[in-house]
Amino acid sequence: MAAPSDFIRDIVAGHLAEKKYPQIHTRFPPEPNGYLHIGHAKSICLNFGIAREFGGICNLRMDDTNPTKEEVEYVDSIIADVKWLIGGWADQQLGFKSGGKSLEPFYASDYFDQIYEYAVALINKGKAYICDLTPEQTDEYRGAPDHPGKDSPFRNRRISENLDLFARMKAGEFPHGARTLRAKIDMSSPNVWLRDPILYRIRHAEHHHTGNKWCIYPMYDFAHCISDYIEGITHSICTLEFEVHRPLYDWILGNLELPRPLPHQYEFARLSLGYTVMSKRKLLQLVTEKIVTGWDDPRMPTISGLRRRGVTPEALRHFAYNIGITKYNGLTDVAVLEHAIREDLNKRALRRLAVLRPIKVVITNFPEGKIEELEAVNNPEDPNAGKRKIPFTRELYIEQDDFMEVPPPKYFRLRPGGEVRLKYAYIIKCDEVVKNASGEITELRCTADLDSKTGGATSARKVKGTIHWVSATQAVDAEVRLYDRLFTVEDPDAKGEFKEFLNKNSLEVVKAKCEPSLKDAAPETRYQFERIGYFTLDKETTPEKTVINRTISLKDAWAKEVKKV
RNA sequence: UGUCCGAUGGUGUAACGGUAGCACAAGGCCCUUUGGAGGCUUUUGUCAUGGUUCGAAUCCAUGUCGGACAGCCA
């Protein structure tokens, strides 16, 4: 894969060429208030990718400045997801805390003492003040994008008073929300974020990482740039909505008069993907309202959901590479993701035979009780994957879709009086269709051309169709979960309430018959059920019950053909 | 009636003043003991109008359209 190229990497390459920084240092700074999704994967691939390509380092940092929304469960999931995504790819680029070994993330909350001192420094420079305005008043004083705000009456407090008040805020003397620390910038700035933004607020809340040490917490804008500075970040890459915050980022570091070089912020467009939603708020809603089974439901666009579904980190990285990095807010076709998944799985998946919706076939000229071992290829894309044996018996199952009494034109599969190849086995001919009293097909009685299997006299005979099958007596049962897109429209965010567009058929469960080797299916192993799709074992599998997830179906040219009519 | 950002086939991107290319999607053909994979192939594009230039997707101006911003969220 060629090295990616985009406007941010161009900037980085330029800085390296002019020796602006001794080493490139990026960071991935999620807030632990939800699980990571595929949009974060884009950011992870960007930040760790840059570190990889330019000999740099990338820190994983919890952006945990709001104790009321953050939880350790999220911290743990983030660590697991990042580890999984960059494993074997960018492990060497991962930044470690001094003395750190395993994947222990950085925490913005580890810098609370230093951030506090920087706030004091700003007060001492006369660049920040304690404001007693209520939240409502603060809103009102801020004005709006199209008209200027007005100065807070507390704006010109004495430095000594500000210092005293700030210390007492820290000491817990004031209730929740009573006062704030604000930067003294410009209430009439056309950029709303420069209208004396709040730097610290009072929150008498326990923090998942610092416990009860603090009752004042820095705002994102104040904590983020300082955290970047403390860690020696050179390129602070975030999404487009922070573009208007960049002047504030620069103002804070500039007015703190810190030794150079300072980090700089660069913005790119977040990922929007068809037929799903990407905001943590909405994903959380799907979870809390039990529309999905959890953050790692295989239908979720979360990293843990995709992992559980059977998507590999390589596929996700390829996807990230393919979509590129720009400042244009587009909607990525979900087919791009699906292609990346299929391309990856095609190379690695072990082929197996499994019948999702069985219909019984009796080979009338094959002896009862006989079990013939036939040889099957594990992966035609990978000779090293070897071969295996599959049992052939008189009674088999084939897919319901693979037989039609009155087939349309170009239907290559089994029909009354017609012939079809059973993969790795014989050519069979359908002699008789057996139905029950209500007219449903219960059994197909067929004869096999017993010379037609591989190496046989008539093995070269051409029949138009080849279908998969399993031995009825040797098959193992499995619950197979077939997932479809979560929404029925490509952009559920665009037209009102996203939940109106939920796909009610996003999960279908079938009782499948699988070839015996699937009895030993292993977690993490990817399978291709021939002619159907890619599958992997679900974590809910028990010794009594095998549960299998469909990662994605195979491309289906026939379905396309049928649609044309 | 504010500030900032953006606009290249259906979608996502590349081209850094010099032949508009790639991927996905769509169509066609070949091949196939997976209607998979693979191979070959076709269609479709620089938001508009001016300007600078020998030459503009690229630089400039204006317009149009789209996005972000008014949390004590990040």
Word description of this protein:
- This protein is of the alpha/beta class.
- The protein has 13 helices and 25 strands.
- The chain has helices at residues 7-17, 38-53, 72-86, 112-124, 135-142, 159-171, 220-231, 246-255, 280-288, 303-309, 313-323, 334-348, 557-564; strands at residues 25-28, 57-62, 106-107, 128-131, 180-183, 198-202, 216-218, 235-239, 264-268, 350-352, 354-355, 358-363, 372-377, 387-392, 395-399, 419-422, 427-435, 441-449, 466-467, 469-471, 476-483, 507-514, 526-529, 533-537, 547-553.
- β1 (25-28), α2 (38-53) and β2 form a beta-alpha-beta unit.
- The model has no long low-confidence stretch (mean pLDDT 96).
- It binds one RNA strand of 74 nucleotides through α5, β6, α7, α12 and β19.
**Main β-sheet: number of strands, strand sense, barrel status?**
7 strands, mixed
Overall geometry comes to elongated
Radius of gyration: 31 Å
> Helix coverage percent of residues?
25-40%
pLDDT under 50 segments (min length 5)?
none
| Widest sheet: strand ordering | 10-23-24-25-21-22-11
What does the secondary structure layout of this molecule look like, with pairings?
Elements: H1 7-17, E1 25-28, H2 38-53, E2 57-62, H3 72-86, E3 106-107, H4 112-124, E4 128-131, H5 135-142, H6 159-171, E5 180-183, E6 198-202, E7 216-218, H7 220-231, E8 235-239, H8 246-255, E9 264-268, H9 280-288, H10 303-309, H11 313-323, H12 334-348, E10 350-352, E11 354-355, E12 358-363, E13 372-377, E14 387-392, E15 395-399, E16 419-422, E17 427-435, E18 441-449, E19 466-467, E20 469-471, E21 476-483, E22 507-514, E23 526-529, E24 533-537, E25 547-553, H13 557-564
Parallel strand pairs: 1-2, 2-3, 8-9, 10-23, 12-18, 16-19, 21-25
Antiparallel strand pairs: 4-5, 5-6, 6-7, 11-22, 12-15, 13-14, 15-20, 16-17, 17-18, 21-22, 23-24, 24-25
The structure holds one RNA strand of 74 nucleotides.
